[in-house]
Amino acid sequence: MTSLVIGIAGGTGSGKTTLTNALLERFAGRASAMYHDNYYRAHDDLDAEQRTTLNYDSPDEFDNDLMVEHLTRLVAGAPVDSPTYDFVHNNRAARTVRIEPKPIIIVEGILIFAEPRLCPLFDIRLFVDTDADVRLLRRIHRDVLERGRTLESVERRYLATVKPMHELYVEPSKRNAHIIIPEGGRNMVALDLLIHEIEHQLA
Ligand SMILES: Nc1ncnc2c1ncn2[C@@H]1O[C@H](COP(=O)(O)OP(=O)(O)O)[C@@H](O)[C@H]1O
Ligand SMILES: Nc1ccn([C@@H]2O[C@H](COP(=O)(O)O)[C@@H](O)[C@H]2O)c(=O)n1
């Protein structure tokens, strides 16, 4: 099976998952998704407090060797057991999730276009572009409501690592994109054009 590999990058809270889900829904049964977030390094070597101090927006925090190996295997037609990640405990979770090879493979993550070994593996590279203030508001909402974080900790982490790493790595990686999509998965014009192009490439 030859798969069409679609990379979806963009800053935190930009709408990557929303776009991924829209494509998974539209191409149900024909698409699989792989998430860079699931390839954050395991940190059983550190205690819970130490894990809150890491820079999770640095490319060094991802196990890209494993991600490249898994994506290469998937594209070659073999299923992979992807790790999963626990954002509440800031560590790799025990559970794995099986990803089946499909005609469309979607790969999502803030830094996938900043990693020179991953970027060339994508046939279509999409960058979801959303203003920083909107992304920050979404991030506060998510981290406080879903990840058990305090407003102070979100603010501290945003200023210490999220914002500077975005400016250093994520934003410049936009130049590696084929298409820049303002507002991601709810941009219906972009979504329709994208679906048309994917159908065309699969035909
Ligand atoms: N175009 C949009 N308009 C309004 N809210 C959106 C839009 N796209 C995403 N969201 C919301 O913003 C939040 C973050 O979106 P998400 O897709 O999870 O971003 P990311 O995966 O890039 O972190 C979610 O609550 C989602 O429902
Ligand atoms: N333990 C962790 C690991 C990562 N993050 C943040 O996740 C963001 C990337 O995921 P998105 O869904 O927002 O694209 C990234 O900005 C990390 O700071 C975290 O909060 N905790």
Task: Outline the secondary-structure elements.
Elements: E1 4-10, H1 16-26, E2 31-35, H2 48-51, H3 64-75, E3 80-86, E4 91-99, E5 104-108, E6 124-129, H4 132-146, H5 151-173, E7 179-182, H6 188-202
Parallel strand pairs: 1-5, 1-6, 2-5, 6-7
Antiparallel strand pairs: 3-4
The overall pLDDT average reads: 96
Fraction in beta strands: 15-25%
Number of helices: 6
CATH architecture: 3-Layer(aba) Sandwich
Largest sheet strand order: 2-5-1-6-7
- Given this structure, which CATH class is correct? Alpha Beta
- Given the C-alpha coordinates, what overall shape results? globular
Radius of gyration: 17 Å
**Poorly predicted regions:** none
Distance between the termini: 13 Å
Query: What's the helix-strand series?
Result: EHEHHEEEEHHEH
Helical fraction equals 25-40%
Classify the fold: give the CATH topology. Rossmann fold
Folded structure, characterized:
This protein is of the alpha/beta class and 203 residues long. The protein has one domain: 3-Layer(aba) Sandwich (Rossmann fold), CATH 3.40.50.300. Helices cover 39% and strands 21% of the residues. It is built from six helices and seven strands; from the N terminus they run E-H-E-H-H-E-E-E-E-H-H-E-H. The chain has helices at residues 16-26, 48-51, 64-75, 132-146, 151-173, 188-202; strands at residues 4-10, 31-35, 80-86, 91-99, 104-108, 124-129, 179-182. The strands form two sheets. It has a five-stranded parallel β-sheet with strand order 2-5-1-6-7, with helices on both faces. A two-stranded antiparallel sheet has the order 3-4. Strand 3 and strand 4 form a beta hairpin. Helix 4 packs across helix 5. The two termini are 13 Å apart. The model has no long low-confidence stretch (mean pLDDT 96). The site of ligand L45E5XJ5 has 11 residues, from loops. It is found in: Cytoplasm. Pathway: Pyrimidine metabolism; UMP biosynthesis via salvage pathway; UMP from uridine: step 1/1; Pyrimidine metabolism; CTP biosynthesis via salvage pathway; CTP from cytidine: step 1/3. It comes from Brooklawnia cerclae. Keywords: ATP-binding, Cytoplasm, Kinase, Nucleotide-binding, Transferase. It holds the Pfam family PRK.
